[in-house]
Amino acid sequence: MSGNTFGKLLKLTTFGESHGEALGGILDGCPAGITLDFDFIRSEMQRRKPGQSSIVTQRKEEDEVQFLSGIFEGKTTGTPIGFIIPNTNQKSDDYSHIKDTYRPSHADYVYEQKYGIRDYRGGGRSSARETATRVVGGAIAKQIIPNIKINAFVSSVGDIFIDKPYQDLDFSKIESNAVRCPDTATAKKMEQHIKEIKKQGDTVGGTITCVIQNVPIGLGEPVFDKLHAELGKAMLSINAVKGFEFGSGFCGAKMKGSEHNDSFNSDGTTKSNLSGGIQGGISNGMDIYFRVAFKPVATLLQKQEVLTNQGDIIAQQGKGRHDPCVVPRAVPIVEAMTALVMADYFLLDKLYL
Amino acid sequence: MSGNTFGKLLKLTTFGESHGEALGGILDGCPAGITLDFDFIRSEMQRRKPGQSSIVTQRKEEDEVQFLSGIFEGKTTGTPIGFIIPNTNQKSDDYSHIKDTYRPSHADYVYEQKYGIRDYRGGGRSSARETATRVVGGAIAKQIIPNIKINAFVSSVGDIFIDKPYQDLDFSKIESNAVRCPDTATAKKMEQHIKEIKKQGDTVGGTITCVIQNVPIGLGEPVFDKLHAELGKAMLSINAVKGFEFGSGFCGAKMKGSEHNDSFNSDGTTKSNLSGGIQGGISNGMDIYFRVAFKPVATLLQKQEVLTNQGDIIAQQGKGRHDPCVVPRAVPIVEAMTALVMADYFLLDKLYL
Amino acid sequence: MSGNTFGKLLKLTTFGESHGEALGGILDGCPAGITLDFDFIRSEMQRRKPGQSSIVTQRKEEDEVQFLSGIFEGKTTGTPIGFIIPNTNQKSDDYSHIKDTYRPSHADYVYEQKYGIRDYRGGGRSSARETATRVVGGAIAKQIIPNIKINAFVSSVGDIFIDKPYQDLDFSKIESNAVRCPDTATAKKMEQHIKEIKKQGDTVGGTITCVIQNVPIGLGEPVFDKLHAELGKAMLSINAVKGFEFGSGFCGAKMKGSEHNDSFNSDGTTKSNLSGGIQGGISNGMDIYFRVAFKPVATLLQKQEVLTNQGDIIAQQGKGRHDPCVVPRAVPIVEAMTALVMADYFLLDKLYL
Amino acid sequence: MSGNTFGKLLKLTTFGESHGEALGGILDGCPAGITLDFDFIRSEMQRRKPGQSSIVTQRKEEDEVQFLSGIFEGKTTGTPIGFIIPNTNQKSDDYSHIKDTYRPSHADYVYEQKYGIRDYRGGGRSSARETATRVVGGAIAKQIIPNIKINAFVSSVGDIFIDKPYQDLDFSKIESNAVRCPDTATAKKMEQHIKEIKKQGDTVGGTITCVIQNVPIGLGEPVFDKLHAELGKAMLSINAVKGFEFGSGFCGAKMKGSEHNDSFNSDGTTKSNLSGGIQGGISNGMDIYFRVAFKPVATLLQKQEVLTNQGDIIAQQGKGRHDPCVVPRAVPIVEAMTALVMADYFLLDKLYL
């Protein structure tokens, strides 16, 4: 009820504040007998980790995950997988300046209004540091559904967009640059833009596109738990996300039915795929693809007006090491949440075996 | 698990196929002692009902809701509210032509693949007729939170958009025209456009904007059940929806942080509201607003290729009375799902009393 | 949350007051493709129905169930099964005498305290009439798991007990007498006792034993959702139930480990079965058996003190037709709840396929 | 779904095997602003800890709980409370002898059948060591509902029973002896009996009675989530429990209605309390009391037949330090689960504010 659990059969429950002892979680409902690839889990954590390149925050977080249960001799046992990620490098004093102030477009004010109390250090529970636990869950989820391929990438930064359909992109190039954009020329422009924004002490938003391939037909639980509705919720639950569209998305709203309908081939596949791989909330076997909008990071390394808990408006400058653009590091988070949804719906569909 | 329940404390569970005996539902968790306005519920049903104007389907559905429990002497008793909407005007023979065929961009094919069986009459469970039960639930939900004002309206049809911010619109005019667009001049253009599309035997998509006003601070359950994540899921669960954005939405992804941050006033309100009334998943007391994209209706009154269950591709023309544009009738459905989310989160927030 | 839904994957949500328009429910999560035996469902309803013999209430309830969805051409479709049971024979005036009074050991007083309002007619939602919907759900659940055999019977009425282990009983005789006791000699004594009690205008309690045979190994979800914990909750949720024990039960608490342990045979079965077919919350393939205690019906056809809503204590006599002993009619309810649990856990176990 | 979460609004999710790195859990839904008494939590852990007296296992478990989140400056913040209990003293080699064998009346066999794999060290997830996490959750739950008084005590060991109603007992004496029986004379007999049983290398069962006082009227969610149904499930989920009864319990099944009904006083209290403080699933303000049956511990320090995974029956003797009687140490576990239920239902009842 309190919003810290995601999933139906495969449930990830998480805890942790950015400057507490540790973050962590429990993944329950993971099938037994899966030989886990711990190197893969570590590499997924590395992708999310700050400090990987000059265009992301240089803050250091070790993000070493410790598994405490549910695994025996390298295999899942069907019992809950508990894990923690100790917070090793958090300095509380960095944040004393925000103890009594509410930063604009942060959650400081609403947490204090809702709960009457907040852990102000580094955003507490509302910090994007929380997403580290999602990446752990997602890295295991990917191993539950090894045949389903999930690739997310940065499709825009500010006004700079990839101007090709995803079918023309080489996903193997996603990790070849700091922006995680598979189109090399666009990636360079994005990188340049982020560096300029950073120099200004400013931040910029962007979008991530995610493509899911090799999806079995039949995943999805109508009417309220349509596959895309759950994917949408998963994405919208990620910090800084402002929008979600799948298939034709907002463009589809401008189209005519005669343009939009996807004609069948005789094998049940479709000639076009404006539907985005989902009909009536159920996967149809075609690629699922969707796009996620991220707002610019709210913490600026320039002066801004903040509200104090005395009701005064004062000028304050963000401190510390923050991302000028969140989307490169959000790519593995989008994939993780996608994997959690797909694995969960894969397991749910076993009901109909 | 099977996707026919929506909500956490206030739970709507629904059933019903478009051509079965009846649709219906159970609203559980409604607080006791609310004197229900049945005329209001009926009027909400009327708004969704087909046949209201020349631009929507002329199909007749009586949509008379019968309440069977949970209400005593006009008041809610705290026990579950069971209700049914008999299907009085459905003629099964209208649909015999689709018994052995799968229509493009409909759910016929995936239902048969997932379940091995489908009620082919009129789309069965995947028919938008299902949303009638949501309107009943929403009409009660609105009465749980009478102070929160929910107004949805058509903001675009095809390429025709309202070119004003919602603050400049007069919501009292929404019901004054058949399109449910509060900007009279734009409404006329939309209506004209829909009539032309209809003449062509075609359909067209559109968007609905929804504004929620007078929201208490503190509604929302981070981290996975952020208020906008639940609103997004609610919208994406409605038939034909392809996208959801709130506040700055996809535009926000192009902006810089210095442009996007909403500065505080000394009373905790904000000068701008690009955040869309939600920070970190929790309402901040400002207006919540979001936009929902609907694809064009898939049933066309022109020939299209369909797939038969023998693997043949044949030409077939849609029969019956269908909407050339779904958005006018979707307005009350968007409001209903919004009301269900807001009432649910309102009740959840009582945990912190 | 509000307690009107039972089950995890196979979910029964019910509604209805004893004197409202109708009772009903939604069974969600039923696998598709099951050819339902409607005669069987009707016969299960008949077993619960009042007026079947001289030792149960002569009240007439037609208990005709109408299925409204989720079934097409006689088969389940995987969509939710909605159903109603109209209340055809309820006379509200029968209950006007309890409008302002709270009967001892009924729920009148607590419903009014909790909800601030109650439907006083015939006990409203707290009436055992509610269990009719459980029998519908259970009758379908039994058809999901046709191989698992569920037999409940009356094992005691007042001080009269069956003095044999269940293995010595012939379950085919359960329905051969009005008490539903498979031991004919004991059944006669019980029947005689109930008739005497009835003459006195009094009521008497009893116990029901339930035996589940042919159970697959592996059903149960430790640690909190152990199979017997869910069975226990299911039983304790039935009106008038005061206790639940399985396997050795309360007797087991008096035993030594060397007496109580069930030694293995080499095929994994056990020589004794004091465990009652469940180890660590998981079925082990042996018979599951448990016993349920029912208190005597609280409505007496003799004068009792009742509390008025003015705080006065007055004498009042129960009216109408009530059961002198509830256990004979509770047998199908115990079976229904058992079937719901077993089918649900059967489906849950598919996760490990 | 997989059974490692307990509760509705106040949710405890746990993980951990007896010989893994650590046990732990996440308590979600705890209201914000509660100043936690950590000494109290530690003392509750001490009560469950092995090695406290000569009649319980001398095994050493430090059971030091570390809180990792959800608490700031000593107060709950409304975010999830993550905690771990490191396993510091587990020696895996102690258990190598059971790697290939299934002990009678243990869960070894069914875990392997269900999951295809098991952590055989010390019972793995099925070990009662898991209950340590419940005590942490319960110790916090007690602080959510400080006015509700929960007292559990040992009411029988083998054939030795307390022969007084609970009203005649002095709960302050529960902790004054090793058996946790408030009746000193009976406690001595029990202690003596357990020592004899221990000498024989045997074990013995017993019962625990729990009394809940000062309960607000109105807690409970009919029809399926009746307060006693949830208490029953909570108790039956504890290792070794075989039965649950509340109020008159199984004795009530022998009584007549005229004996069993609890007459009202004019203030809504009742003269007798055979109902056990709950009517129709809702608390009525009277004391709630119930009794829980525990089987004898299955591990014996004498030779028993075990099954090998090759299908052989061999003789094997239990090793290590085990409890000859589990009930003294189960008292704090019964209280913890009771507190979790009562706090959860207390929070749920806020819906009706």
Question: Which residue ranges of chain A are poorly predicted, with pLDDT under 50 across at least 5 consecutive positions?
Answer: none
Largest interface: A-B, 108 and 108 residues
Number of DSSP E strands of chain A: 17
Overall pLDDT score of chain A: 94
User: Which CATH class of chain A is shown?
Assistant: Alpha Beta
CATH level-two architecture of chain A: 4-Layer Sandwich
Percent strand of chain A: 15-25%
Superfamily at the CATH H level of chain A? Chorismate synthase AroC
Briefly summarize what is shown:
4 copies of one chain form a homotetramer. The first copy, chain A, has 353 residues and is α+β, with helices and mostly antiparallel strands. The first copy, chain A, has 8 helices and 17 strands.
Give a topology summary:
The structure is a homotetramer of 353-residue chains.
Chain A: E1 5-6, E2 11-15, E3 22-28, H1 38-48, E4 66-67, E5 71-72, E6 75-76, E7 81-86, E8 101-102, H2 108-115, H3 131-144, E9 149-157, E10 160-161, H4 184-199, E11 206-213, H5 227-236, E12 241-246, H6 249-252, H7 257-260, E13 278-279, E14 282-283, E15 288-294, E16 303-308, E17 313-317, H8 327-348
Antiparallel strand pairs in A: 1-2, 2-3, 3-7, 4-7, 5-6, 8-16, 9-10, 9-11, 11-15, 12-15, 13-14, 16-17
Can you put this structure into words, describing what you see?
- Chains A, B, C, D: Keywords: Amino-acid biosynthesis, Aromatic amino acid biosynthesis, FAD, Flavoprotein, FMN, Lyase, NADP.
- Chains A, B, C, D: Its cofactor is FMNH2.
- Chains A, B, C, D: Pathway: Metabolic intermediate biosynthesis; chorismate biosynthesis; chorismate from D-erythrose 4-phosphate and phosphoenolpyruvate: step 7/7.
- The structure is a homotetramer.
- The first copy, chain A, has about 350 residues and is an alpha+beta fold.
- Chain A has one domain: Chorismate synthase, AroC fold, CATH 3.60.150.
- The first copy, chain A, has helices at about 40-50, 110-115, 130-145, 185-200, 225-235, 250, 255-260, 325-350, and strands at about 5, 10-15, 20-30, 65, 70, 75, 80-85, 100, 150-155, 160, 205-215, 240-245, 280, 280-285, 290-295, 305-310, 315.
- In chain A, helix 1 runs antiparallel to helix 3 (about 130-145), helix 1 crosses helix 8 (about 325-350) and helix 5 runs antiparallel to helix 8.
- The longest helix of chain A is centred in the C-terminal third of the chain and has 22 residues, at about 325-350.
- Chain A is globular and about 65 Å long.
- Chains in contact: A-B, A-C, A-D, B-C, B-D, C-D.
